Amino acid sequence: MDVYCLPGTMCDHRLWAFTQRAIGTSIKLVHCAIPMENTLDAMVEALANRLPKEPFDLLGFSMGGYLACAFAIKYPERVQRLMVLSNTATGLLESERKQREVALNWVSSQGYRGIPKKKAQAMLGKRHKDNMDLLALIQAMDTTLGEAVLIQQLTSSLDRPSLLSELEQTHFPICVSVGEEDELMPASALSHLNHSDRYEVRVAADCGHMLPIEQPKWLADVLVQFYSGGCVTR
Q1: pLDDT tens for residues 102-149?
Q2: Suppose 142 and one of 26, 72, 115, 229 were both cysteines; which one would form an S-S bond, judging by CB atoms 3.0 to 4.6 Å apart?
Q3: pLDDT in tens, 156-167
Q4: What pLDDT is recorded for position 101?
């Protein structure tokens, strides 16, 4: 079984490696890089040209989760099941938006020297903030993608309208999985998801924003249950 996977900002195929190892061969996680386009609409159209035309299983992490939702709304007939990680299909928190605007201004004037260790640590849960392997992975993915990709991804995704009302008009199964300690998740949106019958919401303990690398075994179990068509155990 193939699941097509959209990564987050400054993440590449290595984002899925731990989870793929935990899953084994029952599911193949097919990495789909975020398109190098200047708007979210253009990204969705680029994905429409890459992804299967027949119904397929879709997974998105962080920015890729928002893109997956936008794609699923525009092409619902092509989505069999949708899982969203570390995203609520809503806009950025104002604090995160301001941080991104500051980063863009800094890069435009000073150039980009890679993600600071402090920023990488902020994306991890308390248990993992000093995990040098995870920090090195975040920094390695960032280094590989580089300045041009950072500018494109930050600029194109600053303005994110909420997609929840449109998403709730679709008919395929939706599972939203988040880290318990993810400070980038809007509390109001999480409350909405938890009180809606439209979503299965799962929360990973000891986990910040980087769910696929912080809790790969937990995520592997959720993926297998969800994409096999069964109910995810609470």
Answers
A1: 878 888 778 888 899 999 999 999 999 999 999 999 999 999 999 999
A2: 115
A3: 877 788 899 999
A4: 79
